[in-house]
Amino acid sequence: MALYNNADTEGLYAAEIVVVYEHLRKLYSAAWLIYQRSGGHPELKGDNHESDFSDSTALSAEAIALRTVCPDPTHAEKLALEELKDLILKRCPQVEMIVHLGTHPEPFTFYLLILTSNGDKTTEHELCNKIEDNCQYLARVHAIVHKVNSAKESLNIGERFWSMVISRGIILYQSEELVLPVVQEISRDLLLEGSRFNWERWGLQGMDFLKGAERYITYNNFRLAAFLLHQSVESVLKGIIQAVIGYRVQMHNISRLLSLSLLFTDELKNVFELNTAEGAKIFALLQNAYSQSRYNSTFDPDEESVRILLTLVKKLNHLAERIYKQFIEAMN
């Protein structure tokens, strides 16, 4: 998920301002760590209301608005979807079905389920990238790509996500040769059982990773703490996505998981405040923590950044748990 003027000769260029800003931040961070250590007990800058995140970590008791997969495109969106469909079929003739799952206003994104022929040698991941890259000149697209057989198997065993999208999604294209199994009715008890299983498998695992991260912070091992914070976010997002919409997540990319969560709520993504410089910086640390911890022997995140990240990951865990409990209560 990407984050997206000339001065006179006597002034500073934009790049120079960035360098000065980064040096000031480093000096400030060093001064803060000295203050913490001399004070005898560590604390977050947020404790003194100096962090951009200090006021954002409190959780509201209000109910969280959850959306369902039930697209209702405007006339303009319908025209755009028609163009996207034509472009996808032109560039990827192996596609056998395109379903519109929903549209998110900010960042404006079309969510499309795409089924491709079983004989296609292109992996789902490669085809997904190809579709999204080709469509970016028309509109931002989040593509969920599967082989036809995968969809048929999921429909045959009554998987909730597949039953929901085929019955509620808007079918933009279906090849004449493609015949899908009849959508099965899923009982409330089975829905509850599936949601509970997925949350207990992944959501609770994410909370355990969080506990591990807190322990490593007390040991001043910020490298392993960052690694476990990444694992916590990945697990919790998998858990809440599978609990709420029933989609079996097989990806590890946190940006993509957050993007997928926008199908039913904005709250999870909003935790990271990606529209701010501080939020983008901390999120970059989170995204890279897994690979950097494993493969880069020089990876050594600073204490302040890891502690800020810990605060955000705690908030994400608590928020996901609230969403899960609210979802279960609504089904009872």
UniProtKB/TrEMBL annotation:
Which Gene3D superfamilies does the entry link to? Answer: Nucleotidyltransferases domain 2
Segments forming domain HEPN? 203-323
- InterPro entries, from UniProt? HEPN_dom
Stretches of the chain forming a coiled coil according to its record: none
Pfam families (alphabetical) = HEPN (PF05168)
Descriptive protein name: HEPN domain protein
Cite the source lineage: unclassified sequences, metagenomes, ecological metagenomes
